[in-house]
Structures are given as C-alpha cells and as structure tokens.
Amino acid sequence: MPLHIEKGDITTYPTDAIVNAANRTLLGGGGVDGAIHRAAGPELLEECKTLGGCETGEAKITKGYRLPAKYVIHTPGPIWYGGTRGEAERLCASYYNSLRLAEEHDCASVAFPSISTGVYHFPLDLAAPIALETILSFLETAKCVRDVTMVCFDDKTLAAYEKALQALQGK
Ligand code: APR
C-alpha cells in the first residue's frame, strides 16, 4: 500500500519531501509551520523570504536544510469559513499541487501533515476524506512519487484518517 497513516512528528521524517501547512506569507508561524522552521533552522526562512508568498491551495518548494527531509513543500491550506467559500476545492488543491511539485522534483517519498485542521479549523472528518482521495487519485498515475505518509500529530487526527481510509477501501 503506497499510502501510510502514522502518528508522529513530521520534522523527524527522512522522506524526500515533507509538506508544511503554511500561511500565505510563507514566513513561518505556529503549529507544524513553527515546528518545521525550528527544526530546519534559519536558512529555511531566508529561502522562504525569496519566494514572495504563496496563494491558498498553491505550493512552493525549498530545501530542507537541517531537516532529515531533502525538500519542504509549503502550501497554505484554506481557512474554514463554514464550507461555502470553496474550502474543499482549495484543500484538494493544496494536496494535489504539493504532490505535483514533489513529482517535478523526482521525489519518491512524501510526508503530509493534516493540512488546515489545526489553527485553520477545517473539520477533521471532512478534511481526511478529501486528503486521502486526492492522494490516492494522484498515486494512480504518478511516475516518481510512490510512497505517501500522512503524519498525524495526535490520536484524534490519527483516528480520523484511519477511519477515512477504511471508508475509501470499503467503496
Ligand atoms: N508534525 C506533524 N503534524 C503536526 C506537527 C508536527 N510536528 N505539529 C502540529 N501538527 C499538526 C496539528 O496538530 C494539526 O493536526 O498539523 C495539523 C495542522 O495544524 P496547523 O499546524 O495549525 O496548520 P493549519 O491548521 O493548516 O493552520 C495553518 O497555522 O501555524 C500556522 O503559519 C501557520 O498560519 C498558518 C496556520
């Protein structure tokens, strides 16, 4: 199975790329964004400053610096406003565009956090199926990416993604 769901800290993953749930400035923040910048060191912010920000649902790539991962793919997920402002499509785009960048950079392995389900308040039970459907669909035709890990930081998130994967496999 090319898709794994695990509990862990994404800054410890030695995958070719890890994805950062960033904000549109790409200048760091709290949550997983803060953890990745702390672990990567100050050079990550220096490179991010050259990128000119990033639109919601888009993705930009940098080196991983002191992280075990080779690259960091930064994507601002959507802020949840209730579901009537294209949040689902933008969340799908964040996963898709991150995988597209990983493919373009010959990455075989990619680790994702649960984008938008923290500070951005995207409901976990809606986000998990969107994330997994997007990843599984991409993997059907991917040439380089062949191993994707959803790295869940807590048990609630882990349970939501495991439930979503079972529901998808049951289809
Ligand atoms: N490894 C993996 N997942 C983590 C880690 C970590 N080290 N730290 C936090 N997470 C998880 C959170 O528990 C949550 O499940 O990442 C998920 C996404 O939560 P946030 O980091 O809050 O990201 P998001 O909801 O997308 O909000 C983005 O928060 O930190 C700021 O700069 C960021 O403004 C942006 C906003």
> Ligands bound here?
adenosine-5-diphosphoribose
Low-confidence stretches: none
Topology as H/E string?
A: EEHHEEHEHEH
Q: What's the alpha carbon Rg, rounded to whole Å? A: 15 Å
- Gross morphology is globular
The percentage of residues in β strands lies in 15-25%
The largest pleated sheet is described as: 6 strands, mixed
Question: Taking all residues together, what is the mean pLDDT?
Answer: 98
Distance linking N and C termini: 16 Å
Helix content: 40-55%
Total DSSP E strands: 6
Helix count equals 5
Strand order of the largest sheet: 1-6-5-2-4-3
Structural class: alpha/beta
Structure description:
By secondary structure, the chain is α/β, with parallel strands linked by helices. 41% of the residues lie in helices and 18% in strands. The chain contains 5 helices and 6 strands; from the N terminus they run ββααββαβαβα. The chain has helices at 31-40, 42-49, 87-104, 124-141, 155-170, and strands at residues 3-7, 17-22, 60-63, 71-76, 109-112, 147-152. A 6-stranded mixed beta sheet has the order 1-6-5-2-4-3, sandwiched between helices. 45% of the residues are buried. Adenosine-5-diphosphoribose is lined by residues 9-11, 21-23, 29-35, 77, 113-120, 151, 153-154, 157. Residues 9-11, 21-23, 29-35, 77, 113-120, 151, 153-154, 157 line the site of adenosine-5-diphosphoribose.
